[in-house]
Amino acid sequence: MTMSKQLVRQFFKQNKIESKLPSAPALVYFHITMERNPEGSKEIHTMMNRFIFQEQAGRETSASAEQAEIEAAASCEEIVRIMRRKFDPINQPVIIAKAISFEQELVPVLLRMLKTSLSVAYRN
């Protein structure tokens, strides 16, 4: 079992998803459910992006360039570099998918960085 699956199981053991309001666990559950349905997830992201790009002219060009950079990242170091800077929230699913593909290498690096968050390596 991968680290991400273990963390998800642990999260839902500690947090209940039943709530009248959209609680954090309910939102995580929705996100995970949608990620298991790639067609539905892609459709939701496409609709949201279309609306955002209509409202914010010029954002599509920069978001597309950033997405291409994320998809081209070939190492854990490149993923960390991208995650450290401000990236367009539209590309969050892309960076998450890329980070998961480097999970075994990335998690220990991120944990070390979080433990030493005052170090130069973690600051922008």
Commentary on this structure:
The protein has 124 residues and is mainly α. 72% of the residues lie in helices and 0% in strands. It has seven helices and no strands. It has helices at residues 3-14, 24-36, 38-55, 59-72, 76-84, 92-101, 103-115. The longest helix is centred in the middle third of the chain and has 18 residues, at 38-55. It is globular, with a radius of gyration of 16 Å. The model has no long low-confidence stretch (mean pLDDT 81).
Question: What's the gist of this structure?
Answer:
The protein is mainly α. The chain contains 7 helices and no strands.
- Kindly report the average pLDDT value: 81
Q: How many E-type strands?
A: 0
Report low-confidence residues grouped into runs of 5 or more.
none
| Structural class based on helices, strands and sheet pairing | mainly alpha
Shape descriptor: globular
Strand percentage lies at under 5%
Give helix and strand order, one letter per element, not per position.
HHHHHHH
